């Protein structure tokens, strides 16, 4: 065996999947925070609303390198390694979704906020085993809040077990959505849903980070979230946070969550049917 073979086979053992996910998210998040108001290159991807900076790319490289140091044989799907646009994202997921171990990473979820200095963005890291998410971590570096879930073991923030809200009706709910970059299908669908839902709830927020919105559903700060045209890296970690906190995640037509879901409804469970019905009635379920 040559020295370079030995190096390429070297892996740091004994750290759990969750510990590695937490370590990656915390490290990347701290670095992203130091770059706030301090990035140097801004470019457009799929549309005039789809931004990317060197910080998105740097964060992804840092996370990928750390994961591969521990688990060199695991597959990796990160937003910045995929061509922009919905078709390319779907194809990239298809290629790896059934891998034994797959890490799914959004290195900065909420890039527009990051660029404008609006302090609501996150790092999202999920690990799936043969297509099923088993670890999910979402880190908000501005509030130093780390949301973490392990399949079957619950979800936690600041060391406390999370529980979804108990709001039993849309009329008592604060919910959230986002405004997708795809102007052809996802954005018009979301706007129709918005029109229908605003009068039925206490209010609607649009914080600008889908992963954090999911974490907020998990922690009971929101009772529901829906958005069209998201990607696996926006949703995978958050979906496990929500279900491990007692909530429900489906697509906008009510089919159970899987890695391919792009149009999502995530709730505390109690308002799920009401929300699906409201979207369907408004012809805003896709
Ligand atoms: C975006 C954010 C935003 C959502 C967009 C996403 P990005 O992710 O999650 O909240 O509305 O649809 O694309 O581009 O900042 O990683
Ligand atoms: Ca994202
Ligand atoms: Ca991103």
Automatic annotation (TrEMBL):
It comes from the Bacteria. CDD domains: IMPase (cd01639). InterPro entries: IMPase, Inositol_monoP_metal-BS, Inositol_monophosphatase-like, Inositol_monophosphatase_CS, Inositol_monophosphatase_SuhB. GO terms for molecular function: hydrolase activity. It holds the Pfam family Inositol_P. It catalyses: a myo-inositol phosphate + H2O = myo-inositol + phosphate. Its EC number is 3.1.3.25. Its cofactor is Mg(2+). Keywords: Hydrolase, Magnesium, Metal-binding. PANTHER family: INOSITOL MONOPHOSPHATASE (PTHR20854), INOSITOL-1-MONOPHOSPHATASE-RELATED (PTHR20854:SF4). Belongs to the inositol monophosphatase superfamily. This is Inositol-1-monophosphatase.
């Amino acid at each position: 065996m040559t020295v370079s073979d030995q190096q390429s086979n070297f892996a740091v053992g004994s750290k759990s999947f969750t510990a590695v996910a937490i370590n990656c998210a915390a490290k990347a998040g701290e670095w992203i925070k130091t770059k706030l108001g301090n990035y140097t290159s801004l470019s457009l991807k799929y549309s005039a609303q789809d931004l990317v900076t060197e910080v998105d790319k740097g964060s992804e490289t840092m996370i990928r390198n750390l994961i591969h140091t521990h688990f060199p044989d695991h597959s990796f799907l990160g937003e910045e390694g995929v061509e922009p646009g919905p078709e390319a994202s779907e194809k990239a997921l298809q290629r790896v979704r059934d891998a034994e171990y797959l890490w799914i990473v959004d290195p900065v979820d909420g890039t527009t906020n990051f660029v404008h200095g609006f302090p609501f963005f996150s790092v999202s890291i999920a690990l799936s085993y043969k297509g099923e998410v088993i670890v999910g971590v979402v880190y908000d570096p501005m509030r130093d809040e780390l949301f973490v879930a392990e399949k079957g073991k619950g979800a936690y923030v600041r060391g406390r077990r999370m529980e979804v809200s108990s709001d039993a009706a849309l009329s008592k709910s604060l919910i959230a959505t986002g405004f997708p970059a795809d102007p052809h299908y996802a954005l018009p669908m979301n706007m129709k849903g918005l029109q229908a839902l605003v009068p039925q709830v206490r209010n609607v927020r649009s914080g600008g980070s889908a992963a954090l919105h999911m974490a907020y559903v998990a922690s009971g700060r929101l009772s529901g979230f829906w958005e069209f045209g998201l990607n696996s890296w926006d949703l995978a970690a958050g979906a496990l946070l929500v279900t491990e906190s007692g909530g429900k995640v489906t697509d906008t037509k009510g089919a159970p969550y899987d890695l391919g879901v792009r149009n999502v409804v995530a709730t505390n469970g109690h308002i799920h049917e009401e929300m699906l019905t409201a979207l369907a009635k408004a012809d805003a379920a896709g």
